[in-house]
Every structure is written in structure tokens, then in C-alpha cells.
Amino acid sequence: MDKIGINRKRGGTLDILYQDELIAVISKPAGLAVQGGEGVGICVTDILSEQLGTRIFPVHRLDKDTAGVLVTALSKHAAALYSDFFIRRKIVKRYKAVCLNCPSWRSGEIRMPLERKNRDRCGPSSVQEAVTFYDVEKSSPDGSFCLVSLRIETGRMHQIRRHLASAGFPVAADDKYGDFKLNKEIRRLYGIRKLQLAAVSVTLPVMDGGKERQAEISCPLPPHMEECVAALFP
User: Fold this and answer.
1) Which of 63, 104, 128, 177 could form a disulfide with 165 if both were Cys (CB 3.0 to 4.6 A apart)?
2) CB within 8 A of 181, min separation 6: which ones?
3) Whose CA is closest to 232, among 101, 95, 63?
4) Can you point out the beta strands (E) in 107-224?
5) Which tens digits make up the pLDDT trace of 176-202?
6) Distance separating alpha carbons of residues 157 and 185, to the nearest angstrom
């Protein structure tokens, strides 16, 4: 398996980590939506379409406030192909998060079904299987904070944030599912304001001379997370 680091190719506004005839994998900044919609003035698909001179199709989602590796397709055919790869779990996404509190075990898995409401928000909701694996990389001496690496086996909406919050170690600065009192405290003490969650790598099939091979495409933590890690784990 090939490993591809950041800045394989650079251009325009967004950092392109990898590009071939089918896909472009970018490093998405925190605070940038993937697609347009109500209340969205600018998004990845618009920027990247202009940058590459072709229409871009998102293959999966990252929350607006989550930074990191994002896979986009350069055609409808490629979008369908890579969407199928996700469905068949041929693509592995890895994340890192700074969490409030620490889990009892250094590594483990969270298996908790998550409710999914219908898109039109009418009718009954459904419950979907959801699995998140975690490993603690660093922890503060008093157990107040930890840096965890994560792998998700399923891709549900806000899965990592919901799972970690339910397990008792929410993502720092998560104003939707996190600990609001502690978020306020770390904002006061450390100036931590942005969501401390990033997609750091993706392992996926790429086409090379008509043959499929696996490649790992990665990028470092975004600056706001590097600053947080430096502040909490000196």
C-alpha cells in the first residue's frame, strides 16, 4: 500500500493531497461546508470546481467544523464508484480528536445505534448501526483531557461526536453534543474555541494503469488542533 502525505499537489485555495482521473482528495479547512445549501455562502464543491475547471462531486461528508481529508469525485461515474466503495467498506477513514475526560480503557470500541430522522423530518425515525474504534494517544496526568485516534466502521451523521459524548469523553469545543460548562472553561483558560476533531487519513482503492491498488492519503492536524495539543499536553 502506498502512503501519500500532504502537498502531493497544491493549487488555488484548497490543498490537494492526491488527484488522478477519477478523484481529488483534499485537506478541508475547519469552518468550510462541503456543499452549498441554505445559509451556506461558499463551499468546497464551488471552490474546487473553479480551481480544477471541472464539476466536482462529493463522495462523503465532513461536518462544516471538522477539518481534514475529504474525497471528491471528478465525474458522476467516479462518484458512484467511490460511493459504492464506502458502502462496501473498502475505504477506511481515520480521525483524531482532543476530548474532555479520558476513557477507562486505553483502547476500545463504541457500538451504539444512532437514530436517523427522515430527510423531510416527517414520519418515523430509523435507527442505524454505528461502530467507532478508539485508541488513546496522550492523556493529561489528572485525566481531564486526552488525544485519541479514531476509526469508524460506519459513517453516520455526527457519529464520532455523538459516540464520544455518550461514552463520557466528548470532543473538546463541541457545542452541539459536548460538555457546555467545560467548553466554556477551556475557552477561558486555553482559548480553545474550534471543534477539536479532524480527519487525518483515508485508505482507499485508486486506479493505476487500469489496476486497483490501495493508497493511504494523509495530512497533519490543522493548526487550531496543533495549538490545542501543545497547550494541553506540553
Assistant:
1) 177
2) none
3) 101
4) 107-111, 114-116, 126-128, 131-139, 145-152, 197-208, 211-218
5) 999 999 999 999 999 999 999 999 999
6) 27
